[in-house]
Amino acid sequence: MNKKHLTVKKLDISNLPDVMNLQQKIISGLHPDEQHFILHRTEEDYLKSLNGKSSNMLGVFDGEELIAQTVYVMPHNGELRDMPEFRPDIPNQDIVIYEAILVDPAYRGSSLMKRMLEYIENHALDNGRKHSMIQIAIDNPASWINALHHGMAITKVDYDPNDGVKVLYLEKRITHQTTPTLKQDNKKTYSLHLGENIHTQIPALFNKMQYLIRNGYHGVCLDKETQSLIWQQQDTSRTNILDFRNIMQYKKVSSL
Ligand SMILES: CC(C)(COP(=O)(O)OP(=O)(O)OC[C@H]1O[C@@H](n2cnc3c(N)ncnc32)[C@H](O)[C@@H]1OP(=O)(O)O)[C@@H](O)C(=O)NCCC(=O)NCCS
């Protein structure tokens, strides 16, 4: 494929046909087991983001062709926001939520998702937002790897309250500073080996990740050399000793 110069722009109602076409292309490229990776949105849904006040859309174009898109929501105080089950303690006016991230299969492999998140983050900062968040299906590593590369951390692992899918919640405190805030200190870390094929590990990841989070750890980055997901302890008042033989036991208790 002959890639032209890629350009980025905020989408409006005139882009609705392109947005629907790209979504259809991606849905038809997903395996039946992967359909839950994205919410299948109607024209009406997208219209709310294309002419809405708190919901917006960013698009990446190759020439005239829309090749990637993202919905991002900057909710207002008093408004019922998406993902109310995650970080209800943060005021709406501080938040940017990423949703419906789609990259044309012909353009994958260039971390376009990460690049879109960087672009939106800057825009969100200019709008006074301080905290970004996203929910991703656990069996969609292409998406959560991009979010980790973007500096987001896995801080909650649960079932989606709407459809029961196993999901990861990632978040990031956003700032104009360029210094990374996550890896700077001597916090305890735990390395969760994923191996060469992450997909074979996914069935076991849900319980392991929940266990780590209950013990005060956040998933902060991938270490390609050791093929591991690195977890960093946030709360030193909790136990430091991780023993995965206890996972079944911990599943039986409601809280630690
Ligand atoms: C998720 C998506 C947007 C990412 O596209 P992208 O930005 O081109 O991402 P890339 O293909 O560059 O991959 C990013 C990382 O994921 C890894 N990755 C890609 N596909 C993978 C797969 N099937 N399994 C495991 N890892 C994968 C890549 O190796 C890369 O990691 P690296 O930079 O450490 O090498 C794209 O796959 C997509 O549109 N998927 C369908 C819709 C969807 O799931 N959207 C997200 C909803 S939250």
Structure description:
This protein is α+β, with helices and mostly antiparallel strands. It folds into two domains: 8-181, 3-Layer(aba) Sandwich (Aminopeptidase); 182-256, Ribosomal Protein S8, Chain: A, domain 1. The protein is built from six helices and ten strands. The strands form two sheets. The protein has a seven-stranded mixed beta sheet with strand order 1-2-3-4-5-7-6. Strands 8-10-9 form a three-stranded antiparallel beta sheet. The N and C termini lie far apart (53 Å). Residues 248-256 have low confidence and may be disordered. Coenzyme A binds at residues 26, 37-38, 101-103, 108-113, 136, 140-143, 145-146, 149, 198.
What is the fold named in CATH at topology level of the largest domain? Aminopeptidase
Report the C-alpha radius of gyration, rounded: 19 Å
Q: What is the name of the CATH superfamily of the largest domain?
A: Gcn5-related N-acetyltransferase (GNAT)
Give the class-level CATH name of the largest domain: Alpha Beta
Total number of strands: 10
Helix fraction by DSSP (H/I, runs of at least 4) = 25-40%
Ions, cofactors and other ligands present here are: coenzyme A
Profile the largest sheet. Answer: 7 strands, mixed
Number of helices: 6
> What class do helices, strands and sheet pairing give?
alpha+beta
CATH architecture of the largest domain: 3-Layer(aba) Sandwich
Distance between the termini: 53 Å
β content, as a range?
25-35%
Morphology: globular
Unreliable segments (pLDDT under 50, ≥5 consecutive)?
Answer: 248-256
Order of strands, widest sheet: 1-2-3-4-5-7-6
Mean pLDDT across every amino acid position: 89
Order of helices and strands: EHHEEEHEHEEEHEEH
Number of domains in the coordinates? 2
